[in-house]
Automatic annotation (TrEMBL):
Annotated keywords: Cell membrane, Membrane, Transmembrane, Transmembrane helix, Transport
Ranges for domain Major facilitator superfamily (MFS) profile: 22-473
Membrane-spanning segments: 20-44, 56-76, 88-105, 117-138, 150-173, 179-198, 210-230, 236-257, 278-301, 313-330, 342-360, 366-386, 407-429, 449-470
Protein name per UniProt: DHA2 family efflux MFS transporter permease subunit
PANTHER family per the UniProt record, alphabetical: BLR6921 PROTEIN (PTHR42718:SF46), MAJOR FACILITATOR SUPERFAMILY MULTIDRUG TRANSPORTER MFSC (PTHR42718)
CC annotations in GO: plasma membrane
Top-level lineage group: Bacteria
Pfam families: MFS_1 (PF07690)
Length: 473
């Protein structure tokens, strides 16, 4: 697909003699990336008070991480292909650990924001390289599907654990602990991976596509920035419109560059792989549903039902547990029923759970009105996440495994920002209109989130329709 000869293309079976142990360490690193997207949220009020950060600046504690992570993922994946998956993974992990320590030691808002941006940039190196290493460790479809089941389980645990651990750590040890927790875990990863996975082969050939890297990074950063701006200033604000225009212009320029360069950052021929393309579209939709859902659940349970942060985290454990169990069973389900039926079925189950959740009232009882839909959502999300990740690396050559990892992570990040911006705005507008009409705040918030849950269900149905394009059964 490209004239560039990649560095990291050794025979997959030679990368480790203890590949399942190696997978557990890679999954631990991926856990940190997923965890860090949510664990900071609970600590923000305390953090802002102690560092003297106003509300507007606090939003940038999240945005700085998301912009760097989402914007640099494709570049990170391609760097891993060219300079070695293990090498780039270790560099990313080391950077993530160092940035986490700096964030915990921050005494000013500037220091914290810079640390968060470095965390995001390091995660953009770590995440696609980790998925690429997984594909090398498990070249056979059956074992790879099992490995991706573990991967999907880690995503579920990380998403729920962020809310739970954020509340516990902030209350017991202070806001700094939500960053410091990454340091010992990251140290374990840095020690273990060199012992478990062989070195990358040396020998870089060709030039890195600097114009392509600059334009796609700029386009992605502007896109994520525009989506974040929607939440803060609205669709029609000049900042939102300007960032969207910059993103589109740079995206068009990127395609123009990639069509004409001999050694492109992203060979456009990769999208001729229908399963990879469908997998990324579906992952974008899953990301949109997942991020909007977890945001809405957290606010609904605290602002409407009156749960504290710890209880809110605990109530999301059944969803995460169902996700983990189904992610583990997904390989057997796929083997028995096929990839396409499993993906479509999972997305339909996810949509059904979201529709059910949309009927939850403002005085909902957890056991009778939230637990059931939460379990359905976990079941659907677990099956869909594993199957979609498998599709995204289906038929990808070893020298483009990092690119595939960068693509699927980018799809998830952009989808999450898109879902939160659009569905969150719809929920907010619905809530505001009801309050203006005299409806009480708890009921108005509940009805607003009902629209959000129905919106996420629609997104899941669109994913199921898209999954119909999958070639394999």
């Amino acid at each position: 697909m490209t004239t560039t000869t990649p560095v990291a293309a050794p025979a997959p079976t030679t990368r480790s003699t203890r590949r399942w142990l190696a997978l557990s360490i890679l999954a631990l690193a991926q856990f940190l990336v997923v965890l860090d997207a949510s664990i900071v949220n609970i600590a923000l009020p305390v953090l802002g008070q102690q560092l003297g950060i106003d509300t507007a600046t606090l939003a940038w504690v999240i945005t700085a991480y998301v912009l760097a992570f989402g914007g640099l993922l494709l570049l990170g994946g391609r760097l891993a292909d060219r300079y070695g998956h293990r090498r780039i993974f270790l560099i990313g992990t080391a950077g993530f650990v160092a940035a986490s320590a700096l964030a915990g030691l921050s005494v000013t808002s500037e220091m914290l924001l810079a640390s968060r941006a470095l965390q995001g940039a390091s995660a953009a190196l770590l995440a696609p390289a980790a998925l690429a290493l997984l594909t090398h460790l498990f070249p056979e479809t059956k074992d790879r599907t099992k490995a991706l089941g573990v991967w999907g389980g880690v995503a579920g645990i990380g998403s729920a654990a962020g809310v739970l651990l954020g509340g516990v750590l902030t209350a017991a040890l202070g806001w700094q602990s939500v960053f410091f927790i990454n340091v010992p875990i990251g140290a374990i990863v840095l020690v273990a991976i060199p012992l478990l996975i062989t070195r990358d082969k040396s020998g870089v050939h060709g030039k890195l596509d600097i114009p392509g890297a600059a334009t796609i990074t700029g386009a992605l950063v502007a896109a994520v920035g525009a989506l974040s701006a929607i939440e803060q200033v609205g669709f029609a604000h000049p900042l939102t419109i300007g960032l969207a225009a910059v993103s589109i212009a740079l995206g068009v320029l990127f395609v123009f560059i990639e069509r004409r360069t001999a050694e492109p950052l992203v060979p456009l021929d990769v999208f001729k792989n229908r399963n990879l393309t469908v997998g990324n579209i579906v992952m974008l939709l899953i990301g949109a549903a997942m991020v909007a859902l977890f945001f809405a659940l957290s606010v609904y349970m605290q602002a409407v039902l009156g749960y504290d942060a710890l209880t809110t985290g605990l109530t999301q454990l059944p969803l995460a547990g169902a996700l983990v169990v189904v992610a583990g069973l997904a390989p057997s389900i796929i083997h028995r029923f096929g990839t396409k039926p499993t993906l479509i079925g999972s997305l339909i189950v996810l949509a059904a759970g979201l529709v059910w959740l949309s009927f939850a009232p403002s005085d909902a009882q957890f056991l009778t009105q939230i637990l059931g839909p939460s379990l359905l959502i976990g079941v659907g999300m677990g099956g869909a996440f594993v199957t979609t990740t498998q599709l995204s690396v289906d038929g990808v050559e070893g020298g483009e495994a990092g690119l595939a990892g960068g693509l699927i992570n980018t799809s998830q990040q952009i989808g999450g920002a898109l879902g939160l911006a659009i569905l969150g705005t719809i929920a907010a507008l619905r809530t505001e209109s009801l309050i203006e009409a005299g409806v009480g705040a708890p009921e108005a918030i509940t009805r607003g989130f009902s629209w959000l849950f129905l919106g996420t269900a629609t997104v899941a149905v669109l994913g199921a329709i898209t999954a119909g394009l999958v070639r394999k059964n």
